[in-house]
Amino acid sequence: MATSDSNPTAAGDLRKFLEELQDENDLLVISQEIDPEMELAAITRRVYETEEKAVLFENITGRQGNGLFRVLGAPVGLSRVPGQRLGRVAKSLGLPSNASGKEIIDKINSAKSLQPLVPKEVSTGPVKECKLFGDDIDLKSLPTPLLHQHDGGKFLETFGMHIVQTPDGSWTNWSITRGMVHDKRRLVGPIIPKQDIGVIYQMWKDKGQDMPWALCFGVPPAAIMVGGMPIPKWTDEAGFIGALVGSPLEVVKCETNDLRVPANAEFVFEGTVSITETAPEGPMMEYHGHVWPNQSKPCPLFKVNAITYRKDPILPICITGRATEESHTVWALTIAAEVLNICQSAGLPIKNAWCPFESHAIWYVLQVDRKNLVGMKTSMPEFCTKLGHVVFGSKPGWYMGKVFLVGEDVDPSDLRDVIWAESTRCEPGTSEFLFDEYGTIPLIPYVGHGTKPVGNHKKVVKCCMLPSEFEDEELSWKVGSFRGSYPPDVQAKVERDWLKYGFDRL
Ligand SMILES: Cc1cc2nc3c(=O)[nH]c(=O)nc-3n(C[C@H](O)[C@H](O)[C@H](O)COP(=O)(O)O)c2cc1C
Fold first, then answer.
1. Is-catalytic flag, 286?
2. In this predicted model, what pLDDT tens digit does every residue of 49-88 receive, in sequence order?
3. 3-state secondary structure (DSSP) of residue 354
4. What is the DSSP letter of 122?
5. Domain residues of the chain, as ranges?
6. Which residues fall in the annotated binding site for Mn(2+)?
């Protein structure tokens, strides 16, 4: 009988991922009892804000024996290990822990040109070790952490992956969207019509049937990265992930419906999403670090008919708020990767893309390929107008508020570089190009809680390049810095003798 992969990789298996984090001194296992009512979340928040080790809580007040569940905080937070700040992102994608931002973006996009690897169906796997059905399920009895004091409830689902399929079975979508415990058997959560889960949900509504659904926690790290990525509609995420990690994912059939779930997931909820019943949901602290207390909204109910889980299962969580958490390291980075793809497919000379984490998934920095730009014989207004329509008119463009266009002497993943370029080269008004043809996600505070415009809220392309950069291949200026202001031999000598001068670190 086929079971799960005997030689797992960190990108393909959460337990292997944790083992490697521990070897790299980037995981703390806490076995003392921790209160899920807020202590657990407060520890994890502090971990994000200090870029501390990911944290595995093994002993949560209220947990029954070795059952549901242990909790993993900051699964894809930033790391303090020297040279490995993006280590957890890199490892999730099968890259070495010291990979750069550019290598991460390029790795995500490399899978675009590969043949999708269709998942391999196996007859069982670790996720089938334990099973609960029907009225034996009591979501209220689980030690679900309260994530923030102003949340409207307990969000069990913050970093799990929903699986839904069109009624004709031709398209399966894997994605992340939050879910709050409603009662013993039901979660409640938003389904945004613009997202793929919303498109598929509408098909089931049109058919007049509740939507079969699975929610998988502790899936392969590469799968959760792609679950948060706005890839084009009708793409099969499972095949894309297989191509990304270089081997097909192993999936296993659900007990109560025909959906297939990762065989090595930590635990899976199976059930249906009601097309008629809603309940108040939220609020929950958002990815931009604001919450408006007491503002709940009616959202669909997700009924759980079965839970399957492996022994000692792990619930990964994302505690949204001020940067840097997984909304930024997973969602914003995969948006940046997808926007780079879209620009390149449209024939625009863009060579790199990034979302500075401090912008909370709202600024996107695009770097031009200057040789090709100059070859286009274009001007700043013409190019920026074209770029804005391509980017803001795309699927990920809906999430984006502000685009910064930078030249090749600016590293998009270095915020100091971006601020330097914006402040010195972007002239208010003249180098800013506004777009009001396209909508923007209302969660951005200046959209949902700002001044109401006539028509749509505006988006902007801020050109952080001088007009001459569109015309001349050679830059007309020199940069005042260690690298820019001294010849290579002087730089080399200073670097070589740095400790000899008396400085205590390189
Ligand atoms: C940690 C994390 C949490 C997220 N939470 C939500 C959420 O609660 N609601 C939502 O609409 N999208 C959320 N997203 C974003 C979606 O997963 C993302 O936009 C995804 O691309 C949507 O799927 P689609 O491409 O299938 O439309 C989250 C992403 C991440 C990484």
1. yes
2. 999 999 999 999 999 999 999 999 999 999 999 999 999 9
3. strand
4. -
5. 14-317, 346-476
6. 173, 237
